[in-house]
Write a structure and sequence with these properties.
This protein is mostly helical. Helix content is 70%, strand content 3%. It has a two-stranded antiparallel ribbon with strand order 1-2. Helix 1 packs across helix 2, helix 1 crosses helix 3 and helix 5 runs antiparallel to helix 6. The longest helix has 37 residues. The radius of gyration is 24 Å and the shape is elongated.
């Protein structure tokens, strides 16, 4: 099958197929005289594996490592567990940062409801944002500093 047929069979875009080809996650099994690349059902299965891994939070570089391990005859599952634990921790930290952002946004919006709209003066763009910017940044920096101290 050609790129467009592979994309359809694997339920991804042709851009995804081309990207995977570019970064070496998949390879054409043969190239015809007319230049078309040919793929088999084995490549469809490989793409499905890649999509499953990405859906679990693995990065494409992680997937490439697991595929290389498998191709060398090594068991990739122990490494997959380690990587997933790392991605889980990263995702938890991202969620915590997003929750902190959500809280700051709600607080700002609540405070802004009772504040008048100001006329920009000099270099000021929006007094509402500029008034809250330093407090939000300080809170975020303090939170970040606390995480850094906990890791040390």
């Amino acid at each position: 099958m050609r790129v467009n047929e592979l994309a359809q069979a694997a339920d991804v875009s042709t851009d995804t197929i081309r990207h995977y080809l570019r970064i070496g996650l998949i390879k054409a099994e043969q190239r015809l005289e007319n230049g078309y690349q040919q793929f088999s059902n084995r490549t469809v299965k490989r793409i499905q594996f890649i999509r499953s891994a990405v859906g679990l939070g693995f990065k494409l570089t992680d997937v490439a490592d697991l595929l290389r391990m498998s191709e060398r005859g090594n068991l990739p599952c122990p490494r997959a567990r380690v990587i997933l634990a790392e991605r889980l921790q990263e995702t938890q930290q991202q969620i915590e940062r997003q929750m902190a952002l959500l809280k700051r946004m709600k607080q700002a919006l609540t405070a802004w409801q009772s504040m008048p709209d100001g006329v920009p003066e000099g270099h000021q763009v929006c007094g509402l944002i500029e008034g809250v910017g330093h407090r939000s940044r300080s809170a975020a920096d303090a939170s970040s500093d606390g995480r850094k101290r906990m890791r040390s």
